[in-house]
Amino acid sequence: QVQLVESGGGLVQAGGSLRLSCAASGTIFSIVAMGWYRQAPGKQRELVASVNSGGATNYADSVKGRFTLSKNNAKNTVTLQMNGLKPEDTAVYYCNLRGYTDYRQWDDYWGQGTQVTVSS
After folding, report:
1. How many angstroms separate the most distant Cα atoms in the chain?
2. How far apart are CA 70 and CA 111, in angstroms?
3. Which of 63, 64, 74, 80 has its CA nearest to residue 18?
4. What is the pLDDT of residue 14?
């Protein structure tokens, strides 16, 4: 019953910026963490950035210093500001939510994915 709505993907030139947003709705008892993963063709899905309920963030080494993840707890949203984009950032980006649907069950939920393409 959890729905993740993603926006902000697109085509951008190298060195440019994009902002991805993800809004969660539905039955969520408690959110453990939210963030973004990405997957390029022929590669495994990898963590880009995440933030937990306490506000602690973690980033892939490849994006540190370029990407910033923020959250709005009241709106159950996260925003990924991506600056200094590189062609190797090209991938489908997926919003992720890890949370409890009741007091004893948790699971990972995924958005449909949004394409980010960075031209050289």
Report:
1. 48
2. 17
3. 80
4. 98
What is the model's pLDDT at position 1?
81
Which tokens belong to 99? 């949370």
Residue 42 — φ and ψ, nearest 5°?
80, 5
pLDDT < 50 regions, the chain? none
CA-to-CA distance for 84 and 77, rounded, in angstroms?
23
Report the 10 Å Cβ neighbour count for 83: 14
* 57 CB neighbour count, 10 Å cutoff: 15
What the block records as the tokens of 10 is 């697109």
What region, left, alpha or beta, does residue 16 occupy, with left being phi > 0 and alpha being psi -120 to 50 degrees? beta
Burial of residue 95 (number of CB atoms within 10 Å: 0-12, 13-18, 19+): buried
Q: Token pair for residue 63?
A: 């994006």
Residue 35 pLDDT: 97
CB atoms within 10 A of CB 23: 17
Given the structure tokens 């440019």, which residue do they identify? Answer: 16
Query: What pLDDT sits at residue 73?
Result: 85
* Span between the terminal Cα atoms of the chain, in Å: 40
